[in-house]
Each structure stands twice: as structure tokens, then as C-alpha cells.
Amino acid sequence: MGEPRILVIGIEGTGTREISACLLKQDSSMDVLTCSSLPLPGDRDLHECGIQFICFMICAASKESFQTLHSSISQVDVSYFAGKCVIVENTKGLAVEQSVEREKIEQLAAQYDIPVLTTNTQNESELTDISNKLQHLIRMNQGRTRHLAPMLYECVRETKLPRGTPAGSNLATPSLVGNTT
Amino acid sequence: MSTRKRQSRQNNVDGAVAFFKNAKTKQPFKGKGNEELLSALELIESTAQTSGLSAEHIDALLDVALDGIQVETVCKRLLKSLIPSGSVLQNSAVKCISALCVQKHSITLQCLLLRWLLVVYDYLEGRDHLHCLYDTIFHFLHYRTLMPYVCHLLYLLTRKEDIRLFRVRHLLQYQKDMGTQPYLTGLLSIYRRYYPNIIHVVNTRSYKSFFPTYDRKWSAVVRQVQEKNRQPGAETNWEVALLQRNSTGTQANDLVPSRKRRKMDPIPLIDSLTTKSCYKRDRQGNILGLKTVPFVLVQCFKDLLDNIDSLEFPSQIGAVLKSDALKHMMSYTKNLTAATRFEFWMSETLYEELTLTDKEKYHDRVSNLLKLLKLFGDFLREGTPTVDLVLSQYLQKWNGLDYAPHIFKLISQFRLVSFDALNIAVLEPLQKLFACSTVYFKCKVIVCLTELLRNQAAYEWPRYRESPQGNRILSLFCVEEETFSHRETLTQFVSWVCRLSLAGSIEEKFHPLYELCVLDFLELVSSLHTHYDLPFVVFVEPRLYERLVISHNPITVAKLCEVICRYKESFSMLKSRVPSTLEDQQMIRRCNHIIRTFCNLLWRFQAYSTDDKASIFHINPATVDERLGGQAMGESLSVIRHPALLPFTVRYVHKCLMEDTIDVYDLKFLKRDLLTHLDEYHLDAFSQFVSTFVRSRPSQTGNPHKTQMSSLSAGDSQAFGF
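ok -> C-alpha cells follow
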């Protein structure tokens, strides 16, 4: 099976370094590679490099990181979209409206069927938590757990609505006073 | 500054003030002979700038400035130095107004007096006395030079009972004569806020543009001095002030919103636009002849009952979260405005608190808000639609850590909506976190979903059922409902949770805590009809049962048997009440299949079969290795040899049979005794299961372990007569 090889993609300021350091701290046998965008230097193929899992980093306050994500995702082979990649949105503890609209990230993720996780790399406990989650996904992906594969949870999902439907759009909306419906 | 220096300075200030107080004749300001006056004046000014003056000094120096003994320059400098170190006496404010009435002073000094009053307004120890002079202050609007300051002061003092038609007429006349002036517009806007139907003022300005700050530097100095003098327990002082404001009988709060109050707590205090004293005075009827009783006058539950039809909701509807009396009022009111106001406030506040505040700094505040929201939902026994909306948006980017206990509790109050909406809003975000989290988080999710189902069965379902046909559902909140099948929603929800639980149990490999949480959910599902009177029974995914029955945890297997017995009870009760539909019959068949599987597994030593290819107990005999031994394989999950029950079997053999070796063949004859032994360990669900579904027929061959499930009739969907 070998050591897991993970690729963390994200521009400067998206928390790529922090995530990579935390992953290595928890499992030093892991091979963590980082790059700012795809394609890889020298136009190398991800499969040839032995990449088993991809983590896309995006910062909520940086439109540039979203654009990089958008261009990098389109370079990824379709086989990675079966539970072998994840998008991590780094809020960095921002208490203000973020620059990148949440709906756009969700639509992009839905288009490629990639889960989106949220974290704040400036908070130690959240950084550890996201690292644990990534380790979990990586282990599942590697097949280290018997009877466990990314498609197991995929079978649970059930939706008839189009992918990328905004949350709450189908909920009953409060009506104004005087509406007799 | 050391204590000695401070003391000596204080003594000097006392001396300086005494110098001015004791002066009986006009003293020269320019020229020779005024060194003492100048030094006293400079000392007062410097002390005021650095540490402020006490309330008594301010009062004394105000008397000096107003009695006319000193020249106007000195009076002006004294007034400019009246910077409070703490609060300002009410009496001082009254003296200012009475000085205006006397008309003894120059117009410049009168303006300065009003400006001083506006600068220290926030630091007055009370405003009752000043408010009593509202009529007098209004009179000074005649003086155009004083008008901007008088308008500003009136803006701060105005309450609902002060608004009179004649005052409105005066203000409109001034505006007509002078043109649209920002200070007049500002005062009219506050009048309009109380009585929008009698004043029509087009107003697009803000408070700051009505009354531009004339004395920014002066105000800044006062603020700095106050900050410097603030004691360490300043937050406690604020809390005390808030508590005092919240007690009944206190005056209405300032109309200018207090930013400091909002920063401490987003939930506003109970406040009415009228006060106790003013309500009594205006009992004859105010300008609009309203007969409502302001809520701030309610002091006990009896007051609420006595005025049940005439109570007026407070100005800040969000205060309902902290007041039990208000909650009662919200629950019975027919006033849809109150519910709409509450929803509007809630959506804004909850969104801001969850997404726009610093999590670390305001964690307790947000947690408190979420806790109160949950309590409010528990009281009303229904969720708030806007809370569901904000929560669904928040869950999309929730990391599973922030405010987790409160978020789970609010999820459990989610209203009954179509399954697709619930899936997008709640289930998919939870499933995403479920898949990559620890077993403890998974347990929390299962518990949360169990509570959600319980809430929807106990409160939401009856609410929909009790609503008149074709009309909107019985709810405090006005919601545009979509048409959907409630039964289908609940059925799909249960199926979804079962699939999720199955995936989780495969991953967590017989984790006892996780299995217990799943079994709690299954217990609830099995008793939906018997305990919550739902007109249907939902039988869950059979694979989940098969997965759980091979658990290593004896409690899991026992509880599972108990759940199957409950299903029997539910189906029997359902059959006796309503004619069974096609769906019910399908569920009964599935249930029968599981019962048959369990009986074969636990009791009849036939764990594996060739029937159901999708089952985990399906085998192809041709592929089974001979060395495994057919009979032994079939007994491997029986009550005697089940991995979860084997320790009990060993104990039974040692303690009851007093034997050192276990003979499985002999134990087959003693399996009923083994059940009795299990009862001693509170695992009586096995006995219950066997007595319910297994009927032992007296065997003619003397082989007592032959049993019969005589009531099963394969292929006959009508036969359900265990």
C-alpha cells in the first residue's frame, strides 16, 4: 500500500503551509506535496507522480484563490472526483463578509461533486480538527479500513434537486403580515 | 500620580473652587490684581482636562458662572472646564434651564450652557427632572440662535407622551418660516417615529446629519476623562445599569441606541415607549386615544391575566427571549405583527451573531443567544421559520465544532418540511461532516436526528393534523407552506438515517456507544405509532438489523430483539385501527423476514440460508469449505455461541452447571435455562423475543429443542398473527 501521497494546492495565504505541517505532525509517514496551482511543473501527470489524494485550499477573503481553484480543478483527472479530493475553505476567523461568495464555491464543488470543509487555520483546535478530518478521508481512500470506501457514504446521499441548489431555497418562506395563504 | 500629589492637587482644586464661591464682587480679569483669579482658573482648567471635576465642584462652579459676579470671559472659561470625572447632578441641568428663563445672560453664554448640557447629557445621573421641564425647553424654540441646541436637547428628551398636536403645529410653522432645517427635521422625525400617521416628513438623513457635533473636541476630552476614571469593574457597572433599566417603573431608554449595550448582549431589554408615571398622567387618553397597556408595567402573572386583551408588545420584540411573561403573550396573541417583527429581528440578529462576530471573543454571548432560542422553541413547541433558514445557511459552512451542542439542539427543532428541503438544508451538511469525523461526532449526529424525529412526531405532526382542511397550519408564524406528503417525508427521513447509521456502523465496527445511539433511534421509530399516534409504521432497512445482530455487544443484540417486539406491537395495533395499505403490507413482509431470520439465527441454529441473496447471511453451500462444518456454522450466532453472549454461556456453565468444559450439544437442551440466566443480567429481551415469536410444540421424539414458528405463513401478506 505504501505511504499515502497527498497534494495540497493553494496560493500563498490560503493556509497551505499550516495544513501541510499539521498533517505531517500527526502522521510523519505521510508524503505531503504542495503547489500553488495546476498543472504541476513540467506538465507531469498526477497519477504518474503517485498522488493519491488532493486537497484544494481556498481563502474566503481572496478572490484570486478562488480563480486559481477554478482553473486547477479543471486540470484534474476525473478519477480523482470519486472521493479522492476535497476543498478546504479557510475563513481565517474573519468576522466580516467574505469576498468570495459562498454560493460560488458550493456551485463549483457541486459541479465536480467534491465535498467542502470549512476551517480557520489561525485557530489551533480548528487546524487540528481539519487535519484529523483529512486524515480520515485519506485513510478511507487508501483502503486501510476493511469494507470502507469513499463510495460507502456516497450511497447514503439522496437528492432530487439539482446539484448546487442553495440551501434554504426550498424552505417555506415567512410571509408578510396580511397574506392570507 | 502618587496619592500625596493627588491629595495635594485635590486640596488645591477645593481651594480654587472655594475662591470663586466666596467671591462677592466682580473681579478684574485683565490688568493687575488678578493673579489669584488666573491661577485658580488655570488650576481648575488643568484639573478638568486631566482628571475631571467632581459633581459637587461642577454644581458650585455652575452657580459661579450663572450668578453674574464674574466677567463673561471667566464664566465662559469656567463653563468650558465643567468636565465631569463621573456623573453630573440633575440639579445642575435644571439650573441651566432656569438660567435661560431668567434671560440675564448674554445669548452667547446661553448657547454655551446648552452646548455644555448636550456634551454632558450622557453623564447625567438622571433625566427625570430635566424631562419635567420639557414644556419650558420647548418654549425656547422661539429663539433662533438657540434653536439648533434646543432641538437637539428635545430630540434626546422626547417621549411618546410629550407629543402634542400644538407642538407639532409649532414645529411645522417654524419649518415653513425658516425652510427645511436639519435640526427641525430631526425633531420632527422623532415625533414621526411615535405617530407616523400625523406627521409626514420625508426623511432620508441620519441622526448625525440632523445634529452635527459642534463640540467634537470638547466631547472627546470628556470621553477621555471618563475612560481614564473608569474603574476596573466598569462592565459590572454597565450590568448594574442594565438591571436597573430593566426593572419596572424605570424610565424609558434613550432613543439613541446604546452601542455599548448592544455589544454586551444582542437581546434587548424590555422597554415601552411610555413609562409608569406618564401612563398614569395620560390615562385620560393621549393624542390617539389608545387604550393599550405598555408591557413594562406588567410585574407579575396576574397583571398579564388582568390585561390580557390590551397589552402592548415592547418596542424591542427580541426581549421576548428573556421574559417568560412575554413568551406567554406571544403564544396566545392574534397579532401577526408581533410574530413578523420577531422573525425579522431574529433573522438579522442570528445571522450577525453566527457569521459576523468574532467567535473567540463573543463565544459566550452567541451561546447564550442560541440557548435562549432553543428554550423559546421548547416553550412554543414549534421552530421558528427564519431560524431554520439562517441555520440551513450556516450549516453549509459549519465546521462541526463551533457552538456544536446548541446547533444540534436547534437542528432538532427544525420544522416539518418536504424531504428534499430537509435534505439540502440539514442532512447533506451533516452527512458530509459525519463521513470524516470521529465516532463521538457520529453519535452526536445520530442523537440529534433522533431528537428531530421525536420532535416532528410529537409536535409537528399533530400541528399539521389539527389544522383545518385547506387553511394554513396552526402556527404562531405566518409561513407560505408548500404542499408535500408528511408521511412520505418522515418515511424518507427514517430511511435516510438508517442508511447513514449502517454506513457508520460498518466504519466504526461495533463501537458500543455508537450502536446504542443507533438503537435509540430504532426504538423511537418502532414506537412512532404506539407512543405518538402516527397512523403508520415505518420499518427500516433490514440490512441495518443484520449488521447490528452480529454485534459483539450483548446490549445491542438484546435491544434489537426488543425493537422487533415493539414492531410487532405497533403492527398489531395499526392493523386493528386502520385497513392496511400496500405499503403497510410490504413493511409487514419485511418485518416477517427479519423475524424469521432472527429466529433461525438465535434459536433454531440455522444462521445461514440460501434465500435472500442480498442478506449477509446468504451462503452458497457449494462454496463453503467442508472443514467449517455445516452444523457448527449454523450454531455460530445462536444464543449459546453468539460472540456477544458467549461470556454469559461460559458463566452459566461454570456457575449453574458446575462444569469445567462446555458441551454445546448438551447446551442445546438447556437453552431456555440459558435465557433465564440472561434475565438475571437484565438481558430479558431475548426471553421476550422468544416468547413472542417462538411457539414450542411438545415434541413426540423427545427432542425439546425442536420449535415451530407456526404462525408464519410464507407468501401470505394477510397472515400476521404472531
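The longest strand of chain B covers residues 293-294.
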